[in-house]
# Entry
Amino acid sequence: MYTQSFSVSDEPGKALKPVASTEPAELMARFDARIDADGRIEPQDWMPEAYRKTLVRQISQHAHSEIVGMLPEGNWISRAPSLKRKAILIAKVQDEGGHGLYLYSAAETLGTSRDQMLDALHSGKAKYSSIFNYPTLNWADVGVIGWLVDGAAIMNQVPLCRCSYGPYARAMVRVCKEESFHQRQGYEALLVMMKGTDEQRAMVQDAVNRYWWKCLAMFGPPDADSPNSVQGMRWGIKRISNDDLRQKFIDATVPQAKVLGVTLPDPDLKWNEERGHYDYGQIDWDEFWQTVNGNGPCNKERLSTRVKAHNDGQWVREAALAHARKQQQRAMKEAA
Ligand SMILES: [Fe+2]
Ligand SMILES: [Fe+2]
# Structure
C-alpha cells in the first residue's frame, strides 16, 4: 500500500535528503544503462548506495505495513457475524502476514537483516502506513478496509510489479493477486450489508465517512511536496506519481460507490469533463503528518500489540530453531 515511504523518512524529525552521487562513474553508467533499458537489478549486481538505501527503506516500510495491517482487522476475527465471514477474514489476515514475509525476504537480499528491521519497527523508529493507526469501530470497517484500503493498495502495488529491483517486483506479483481478492471480499461484504437493515446501511456509510479521506492520504503527499519521488521514478522503483495514483483510485472508486449506494464524504467531488477525471476536495495533510509522526489515535496501541505478539512468539522461534538443528544433526549422522 505504501509508497508514502518515498516522502517519509525513518529518522524522526528529519526530511529525506536529495540524493548526491559519489559512485564510480563506470559502474554507475552500466547501472543507468540497465535502468534505461528497463532491465532488472538483481541482488548480486552492483548498485549505487542510495538506490540500495531507498529500496531498504521502501521495502521494509512496506513489510511493516503488511504486518501491522493485520491488527485492525484481526480485532474482528472473534466477532465476525458468521462462520463464512470468519473464515474469509482469517484467510485475509493470514495473507497479509505472508505479504510481510515475502517483503522482509526481499529486503534481506539488500543486506539488511530481519532482526534489524524488526528492531526498527518495535522501537518505533521505522514507519508503516498511517492508515493502520485508525480504529476499526464496527463490522462495516472490515468491508471498507477491503474495498478502499486494499483497493488503494492495488493501485499502488500493481506498478511495483514492474519495479527495477527484481526480488521486490517478483514478490509483488503474488501480493497483487491476493490484494485483488481482499478488495472483492470487502466490496461483497458491503453489498450484502447495503441490502440489509437501515442500521446496517448506516454502519457502512459511517465506515466510509471515516475511511475515505484517510485512504486518499495513503498515496502520500502531493507531488510538489514529494521531491524524492522524482529519483524513485528515475530509478524505475516508482512508476506513477502520488497524485496520478490518487486520481486513478478516485476515478475507479466513484462508480463503485454509486453501485453500492453510499455517498463519498466530499462536497467537491464532481466529474470534470475537460480533464476527463473527478475533481476532489482538500486532504488534511496536518492530520496525516500527525499520524505518521506517532500521534494518531492508535499508534501506541498498534505498536504495543505488535511487540507483545513478537515476544509471545519467542518460544515458537526457539522451538523451530531447535528442531532445524536436530534435523541437521540427524542428516549429518546418516551421511557419516
Ligand atoms: Fe497485503
Ligand atoms: Fe490486503
In short: The chain has a mean pLDDT of 93. The chain is about 65% helix and 0% strand.
